[in-house]
């Protein structure tokens, strides 16, 4: 009899345990649906299609991730009801936060946003009454569940996990979470599982979450280790480099009169601005950028080696603003803005360098704030202000082009200069020339005029003409301006509008070189920069303005002499002027300089930031 009772109890316990597992799975599934729902503006149809039609495999993988969280909570508290309640509570709050952030800023919740939980009072002050009411309702539901559970705990038995089972599950799930936390590390198996069907969109996390789901998008935005540790990395080595390049900086500074740049500095990264006359296989009959071409003959000018083709704007911007290249980063680092920079509190940059020199620093992007997490990244880089489409004064558009025009963006620059009493650093990322190009304008250059049959390409040529005209107007205004001003202008990358056939007719180098120049309204100095990289812009500005340099800028100048431009698989040999495909094709001195550069980049992006502590990025008093 006793044996039969034991068997019945065992079977009953087994059935109850199975029910607990099912309840956990059901809770996870519902929480997952809820997260998708709040992410997609409460559109149930999108959720159903995502789960059952479009992205079922990714949804199942993400459900497994959430189930691991549920098991971890169950092992932690030892009670399935509490585990389910905590899942519902955390999912409810996270979903509300996602919905509110999408509503306010058109972007989802990132892992870095969880840091804001320490600022709960500040967050509550930001919420409107409706959201506060919803948040209060979630807490009331949770409180009701707790009271109900306490009252009916005896009437409705639950199976308590033994301590051995709890420890085992806790250790196993903790290890799983630790591994998931390395999502952006090369070879991560969870990332590979998603990669089977995922189309990651690094430039827009709104679209990234939409395409891959909340959980996958959240994992994608976990911080990643940007670089592997160099063998000789140490504080002593970084201090040694400080001495070496400070000596070089002192030699350079002995020939320069200005301690700080006594000029406004304007960076203009023009969307998809390229020179079609440089393309093989394109029989273009007219010049879409005559003003720019003429100006390049009387200024510091050359070709920018762009890391991207058809995209990658933020990477070129990152290089220009930080002096750090994409080339040394690990293969899994495809977009620093979204993978690690936005999680930093601060970061040495052109912005912080000029701000310390007394400049007022302003970023302008005539679009929204969500692209490449610019709002967070501009704060990290040290900008005083960020103007975008909703806060700009000048927002005119051309014809049927959906984007704010270059002329309007340039008018914003002039307005800032006129309103400011300080020296200004203004960084503009334009939008006028952005894809799509089909039917962008009602009037475009004719096929007879251009020699081009494609209307799409001719729409792009019209973009270039408008850009060229707007640039002429801006520089004419600056020429009359009574403050010294330097403009660094470059195209971020080629558009993909010309198609694969034309791409195949050109060298890879051709398709990664765009026009760039540095203009001054006080001096007319011509210098052929050849092919250059964005990391070298500030040293060129300092040379043009006769300003002194830091140890870091001295390193860049030494590197530029031996490696004038470089990206992964594309290196310009400073000794020969030709391209090579790897570092091995460069001179021993060039490789040595790159090794020093790697150490500083690793130290700043991944390491202990000894270079910031020893003054590598600051002027030497």
TrEMBL record:
Molecular function GO labels: transferase activity
A GO cellular component entry from the record: plasma membrane
Short name of one Pfam family: Sulfatase
Major place of residence: membrane
Protein name as catalogued: Phosphoglycerol transferase MdoB-like AlkP superfamily enzyme
SUPFAM superfamilies linked: Alkaline phosphatase-like
Gene3D superfamilies: Alkaline Phosphatase, subunit A
Metabolic or biological pathway, per its Swiss-Prot or TrEMBL entry: Cell wall biogenesis; lipoteichoic acid biosynthesis
Coiled coil: none
Residue span(s) of domain Sulfatase N-terminal: 264-546
Species name: Trichococcus patagoniensis
Protein's cellular compartments: Cell membrane
Membrane topology according to the record: Multi-pass membrane protein
Membrane-spanning parts: 16-35, 59-77, 82-99, 132-151, 163-181
């Amino acid at each position: 009899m006793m044996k039969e009772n034991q068997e019945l109890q065992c079977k009953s316990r087994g059935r109850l345990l199975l029910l607990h597992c099912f309840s956990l799975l059901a809770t996870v599934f519902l929480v997952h649906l809820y997260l998708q729902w709040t992410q997609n503006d409460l559109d149930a149809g999108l959720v159903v299609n995502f789960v059952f039609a479009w992205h079922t495999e990714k949804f199942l993988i993400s459900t497994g991730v959430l189930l691991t969280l549920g098991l971890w909570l169950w092992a932690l508290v030892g009670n399935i009801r509490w585990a389910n309640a905590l899942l519902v509570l955390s999912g409810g709050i996270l979903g509300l936060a996602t919905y509110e952030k999408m509503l306010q800023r058109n972007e989802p919740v990132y892992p870095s946003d969880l840091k804001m939980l320490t600022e709960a009072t500040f967050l509550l002050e930001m919420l409107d009454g409706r959201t506060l009411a919803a948040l209060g309702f979630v807490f009331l539901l949770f409180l009701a569940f707790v009271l109900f559970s306490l009252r009916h705990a005896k009437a409705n038995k639950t199976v308590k996990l033994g301590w051995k089972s709890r420890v085992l599950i806790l250790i196993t799930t903790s290890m799983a979470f630790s591994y998931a936390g390395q999502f952006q590390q090369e070879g991560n198996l969870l990332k590979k599982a998603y990669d089977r069907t995922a189309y990651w969109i690094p430039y827009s996390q709104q679209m990234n979450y939409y395409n891959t789901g909340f959980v996958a998008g959240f994992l994608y935005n976990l911080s990643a280790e940007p670089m592997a540790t160099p063998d000789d990395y140490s504080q002593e080595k970084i201090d040694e480099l400080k001495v070496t390049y400070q000596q070089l900086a002192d030699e350079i500074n002995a020939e320069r009169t200005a301690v700080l740049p006594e000029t406004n500095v304007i960076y203009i990264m023009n969307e998809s601005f390229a020179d079609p006359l440089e393309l093989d296989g394109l029989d273009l009959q007219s010049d879409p950028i005559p003003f720019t071409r003429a100006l390049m003959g009387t200024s510091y000018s050359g070709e920018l080696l762009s890391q991207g083709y058809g995209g990658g704007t933020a990477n070129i911007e990152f290089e220009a603003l930080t002096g750090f290249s994409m080339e040394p980063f690990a293969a899994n680092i495809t977009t620093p803005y979204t993978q690690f920079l936005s999680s930093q509190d601060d970061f040495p940059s052109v912005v912080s360098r000029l701000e310390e020199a007394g400049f007022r620093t302003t970023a302008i992007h005539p679009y929204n704030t969500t692209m490449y997490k610019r709002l967070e990244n501009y704060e990290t880089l040290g900008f005083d202000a960020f103007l975008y489409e909703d806060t700009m004064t000048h927002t005119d558009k051309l014809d049927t082009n959906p984007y704010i025009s270059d002329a309007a963006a340039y008018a914003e620059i002039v307005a800032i200069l006129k309103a400011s009493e300080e020296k200004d650093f203004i960084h503009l990322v334009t939008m006028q020339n952005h894809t799509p190009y089909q039917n962008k304008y009602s009037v475009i250059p004719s096929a007879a005029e251009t020699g081009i049959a494609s209307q799409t390409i001719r729409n792009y040529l019209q973009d270039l003409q408008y850009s060229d005209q707007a640039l002429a107007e801006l520089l004419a205004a600056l020429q009359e301006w009574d403050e010294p001003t330097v403009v660094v202008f470059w195209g971020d990358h080629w558009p993909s509008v010309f198609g694969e056939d034309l791409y195949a007719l050109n060298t890879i180098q051709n398709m990664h070189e765009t026009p760039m120049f540095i203009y001054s309204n006080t001096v007319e100095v011509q210098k052929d920069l050849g092919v250059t990289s964005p990391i070298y812009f500030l040293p060129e500005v300092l040379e043009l303005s006769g300003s002194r340099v830091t140890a870091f800028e001295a390193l860049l100048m030494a590197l530029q002499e031996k490696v004038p431009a470089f990206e992964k698989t594309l290196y310009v040999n400073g000794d020969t002027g030709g391209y090579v495909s790897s570092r091995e094709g460069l001179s021993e001195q060039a490789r040595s300089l790159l090794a020093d550069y790697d150490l500083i980049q690793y130290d700043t992006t991944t390491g202990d930031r000894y270079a910031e502590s020893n003054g590598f990025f600051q002027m030497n008093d």
